[in-house]
Design goal:
Helix content: under 10%
Order of helices and strands: HEEEEEEEEHHEEEEEEEEEEE
Shape: globular
Distance between the termini: 37 Å
Structural class: mainly beta
Length: 407
Amino acid sequence: MKKLLFVLPVLFLLPGLVFSLDFGLLADQKFEAEDKALFYDPSLTPWFSWAGNGGLSLYFSGKLSFKYSYYDDGFDDNDGWTDPVVLPELSRFALQYRPGPNFHIEAGRFAYSDTLGFAASGLFDGLRLEADLALGSVALGVWYTGFLYRETAKITMTALDMKNYAEPWGWDNFGAYFASRRAFASLRWDLTLLEFHTFSLEALAQFDLNDDERFPPGSGEARLHSQYGEIQAALFPSGRLGLIAGALFEAMENGDGEFAAALGGLLRLKAELPGSLSDNLTATVKFGSGQWNDTFAAFAPLVSSAQGVIFSGTLSGLGLFSVDYAARLHRTLLLEIALRYFARTWDDPAAPGKYFYGGEFWASLGWQPLDDLRLSLGGGAFFPALGTINPGGDPQWKLNAALTLSF
């Protein structure tokens, strides 16, 4: 027995013999300033990874953040520093199994994005299987959103979702912590052509699983289910030039049996610029349909991701034109600059003939002198005066900074 107690710790410490074990801690300090508000968000993210024999591996990370907010908007009840919010989150929990080079299973909370990145992107709880076949790669997955933190998930498909999203939460109202309860499934096929080009097809179906008490009779609210069909082609005619084009069709139906459709599109051109500097330029056009008529409604993504850093509009009824420049100024220094312009893709009866929101400029600098140290600085502004919807609006500005230490 004494020999066994001695041998087990030795085997545990020999990763090449049985398994490999690693763990660490990320410490983040994030600062953000905008007109009449200041935010400070320190957080700790412990992580753990394990890789065993036979293609089995495990990764776990949690996050504990402390959110401080300062306001100076002229309202006495709101001005000054607010009480800090202590926020626990399960960041990522993934169990992976690779029995061979052509098959992969992943379960837990892990990253997923649809083909175009229009419908759903982020961490979700679920199961995903992927297989490399002779005619391409096939992936099948199912996910659930009801255990995610609502502000991380950003699921606001309906007016009722948005109402619950805005409800204050605390330890005495912990139910408000969670995101809208929805399940979705995806089937995706990727085909590689001539080694460099890819062709992708994906079908995604989303189901509203929220409780019946959320839909009182006569409230005008109803569940919303949706299905998405996506197609994308990524072409690389030369080593320095890439072209991506894609389209999306969405079908929606609510609990009252009403149906509608929506469209989306993507065109992106990326070029690596000549010269000794490692830099590239990307031009992107994206759009999601708006309320066009009784048949075509506003595009409704599962995840409501803001399309700008300062401009908070989602792709629902929005057109985006952007030019992004990225340059590796030094091995440790990365510069990124973005110019974006936002337009409405539908005619609002309250403001007929006004389609343009305005433009946004954003620049950021990332410095990573060591593997375990990273500092980033960013700043920019959104100019509504460059549009027609609110031409008299003042510019909205934002500055942020982040420091990440890895232990």
